[in-house]
């Protein structure tokens, strides 16, 4: 390599200085370093048609979190004698333009397993290699390289967490120290005719200022991520005893988890550094929980989903996805909208959906409740529809993990005990008998006595009047009767599972249509009988 040449560091995720092998390699032996982030209209351009403020892909909370993370990255780069160069446009075109314009001999970026980035990377890499530019794209977003695990498993991803753990063992990098700090970076070279800007504000991207009464309480960026990590780890006993799926989904003043997921999603926090910190802590305590329930176990779950997602074509849909059961879900837009807009009439479910809308985050058990309710628990709406809502609104929305969890919670893959459900009434009550979580996120119910707060439709009218909340006027009636809806869902799941078994998983669109018709016809006499019973009664 000629001395005095430049390197381009392309940031996408991995928005950090600590444990960033691509950044470290880009700065080694380079006279100039160009740290680039491209504002991608695909993710960032305002979409007035969407059901919530944001772009066609992401809600405003996540866009805001990303911009905060970029501002923090820029400050941290400035401390090291560099800065972040922000450009706008289709990323592969912008990158290729920069590579043509600048004297760059090395292109460095963190490897990404998401299909969108895989396609982008092919374009950029093919230009760079033709132009004789060295490409360095290390795996540092996950603990393991998903491709290695798939190779060890004979070319297929492991489909259970335990088989994943057996194949994975300890990560290979654990024995060598991670590079956590950099003392300085090469200066930015001449940027020529490239149109470079500072990190924009949401208003500069074309969004209106939000008038929301309660904003997302989590700030983006590496500085905040490392602070949260330190605070979590200071409580040694809590970390040692951490046991998922325990934890209180109704705790909102002090969430019952680390809330590090959005920082891991954007790579403001290195999962490898987090893992090492946990391993060090475990060495110094007498007893600690182990995977799958421990905190280190949660990082391994993340890698498990990344690996399955990487090795499964059409992972994000039902059709053409070999590991997904084919189920004749409802196409009921009204039920979907009631769920999405927090109008199901079940306060526990609606409060969670309001927290999602306002904060862009909720506890994992709260996510489980609303996902189960939408799909196999009550409404029998397609998991892909729920996945789209989460993908948009969550600040920690992560392609592999979000799809993996929806497959799991709808009993489409990984988990098949569809008779085990989260009750929309009794589950929340267990943690929060007084309904404080509901009162906070659904103030319309704040004066409802605790006896009725999970089922306000059962409150006598005099009580509803006193609570200034008439059901059907101030707060909706339930969209379904839980017991009968759940019974119907179980019947449909049983039939769908039987069909999948009979066809050895090779269920055609025609087969699904026929099953849907049969299920609807089976339901008619049941509805008719109920009506008759009502008339007689």
Word description of this protein:
It holds the Pfam family FAD_binding_7. This is (6-4)DNA photolyase. Keywords: FAD, Flavoprotein, Nucleotide-binding. InterPro entries: Crypto/Photolyase_FAD-like_sf (IPR036134), Crypto/Photolyase_N_sf (IPR036155), Cryptochr/Photolyase_FAD-bd (IPR005101), Cryptochrome/DNA_photolyase_1 (IPR002081), DNA_photolyase_N (IPR006050), Rossmann-like_a/b/a_fold (IPR014729). With 537 residues, the chain is mostly helical. The chain folds into three domains: 140 residues, HUPs (Rossmann fold, 3-Layer(aba) Sandwich); 128 residues, Serine Threonine Protein Phosphatase 5, Tetratricopeptide repeat (Alpha Horseshoe); 202 residues, Orthogonal Bundle (DNA Cyclobutane Dipyrimidine Photolyase, subunit A, domain 3). It contains 22 helices and five strands. The radius of gyration is 25 Å and the shape is globular.
Q: Give me the Rg, rounded.
A: 25 Å
CATH architectural category of the largest domain: Orthogonal Bundle
CATH topology of the largest domain: DNA Cyclobutane Dipyrimidine Photolyase, subunit A, domain 3
Total of DSSP H or I helical runs spanning 4+ residues: 22
Distance between the termini: 89 Å
| CATH superfamily (homologous) name of the largest domain | DNA Cyclobutane Dipyrimidine Photolyase, subunit A, domain 3
Tell me the strand percentage band.
under 5%
User: Whole-number average pLDDT?
Assistant: 95
CATH C-level label of the largest domain: Mainly Alpha
Query: How many beta-strand runs?
Result: 5
* Largest sheet strand order: 3-2-1-4-5
Shape descriptor reads globular
InterPro entries: Crypto/Photolyase_FAD-like_sf (IPR036134), Crypto/Photolyase_N_sf (IPR036155), Cryptochr/Photolyase_FAD-bd (IPR005101), Cryptochrome/DNA_photolyase_1 (IPR002081), DNA_photolyase_N (IPR006050), Rossmann-like_a/b/a_fold (IPR014729)
Cofactor: FAD
Catalytic activity: (6-4) photoproduct (in DNA) = 2 pyrimidine residues (in DNA)
Family: Belongs to the DNA photolyase class-1 family.
